[in-house]
Amino acid sequence: MIRIRIPATTANLGPGFDCMGLALDLWNSFELHLGGESYTVESHGEGADVLPFGPDNLIITTLFDELDHLRAPIPEGFRIVAHNAVPCMSGLGSSSTATLAGIIFAHALVRSAAGDDPTELNLHEVLARSIEVEGHGDNVAPALMGGFVIVMPDESGVLTQRVPHVPIKTVVCVPDFAFPTSVARRALPDFNSKADAIFNIGRAMLVAEALRQGDDAMLARAMNDCIHEPYRLPLIPGAQAAKACALEFGALCVALSGAGPGLIAFARHGHERIGKSMKHAFAEAGYESRFWILDVSSAGTSIGRLPA
């Protein structure tokens, strides 16, 4: 029926907790094939040996829930083929690609049943629903829209702004350490001080402006956080040392990617050296890791028909 391609994302960007994200040039693709009497997900690449292949897969549960929300029937059977390059539970938005895929497939099925083009979706509605399901939009918004996105819910829906940015390469290093988002959320305090809120608000605005202008000095000074990293970083073995190594070997700044356990370093040169230094730091803490050198992707989700 249709094929969708969704980029990895890095969220928070230091001080922009739950409201800023970047799309990265690393992709998951999903195909929806109608027919059959069962509901399956055939996964290839990252997570293929651990992701559920039946109705308990996040793509299918999201698809079913969204069809229920739309008051639409569930088709008799289908097969989803997933080609995953985004590592699972890494802080790179893998679960957000699955959530977005499920919601897009549901809306495509409704349009197809009505005789409309299943690829011509109301993307604002898709985004609003994805944020409602996820609870925050800093992954799904850049995944859908591409580039650097600021996103906030409000009483009338969702506020989004796609901010132009000067191209920059990143190094993302992900240790083989289980740090589920639920655990990362529980690590946070119930309240933050006014001083911490002011610290983050000002720096979040400066990070946005630094990315827009390509102001490396400003980015290096602004990419700091008081709301989540001080509580999460110490829980990830080797992360503090990896951050220090990346800065020593030429990174402009380093932040947790999303809730972690991955770290993202922004740099103009020496990317391989920075990645190897982070990998070595995690190894010293007893954990294997992998790193990717990634551009920020100006492209977001693409939706197309499968060949008949």
Question: What order do the helices and strands come in, and which of them pair?
Answer:
Elements: E1 2-11, E2 20-34, E3 39-45, H1 58-69, E4 78-84, H2 94-113, H3 123-134, H4 140-145, E5 148-154, E6 157-163, E7 169-175, H5 181-186, H6 194-213, H7 216-222, H8 229-232, H9 239-248, E8 253-256, E9 263-267, H10 271-284, E10 289-295, E11 302-305
Parallel strand pairs: 3-4
Antiparallel strand pairs: 1-2, 1-11, 2-4, 2-5, 5-6, 7-9, 7-10, 8-9
Structure overview:
By secondary structure, the protein is an alpha+beta fold. The chain has 2 domains: 2-163 and 297-305, Ribosomal Protein S5, domain 2; 169-295, 2-Layer Sandwich (Alpha-Beta Plaits). It is 36% helix and 26% strand. The protein is built from 10 helices and 11 strands. The chain has helices spanning 58-69, 94-113, 123-134, 140-145, 181-186, 194-213, 216-222, 229-232, 239-248, 271-284; strands at residues 2-11, 20-34, 39-45, 78-84, 148-154, 157-163, 169-175, 253-256, 263-267, 289-295, 302-305. The strands form 2 sheets. Strands 1, 2, 3, 4, 5, 6 and 11 form a 7-stranded mixed sheet that branches. A 4-stranded antiparallel sheet has the order 8-9-7-10. α9 (239-248) runs antiparallel to α10. The mean pLDDT is 95.
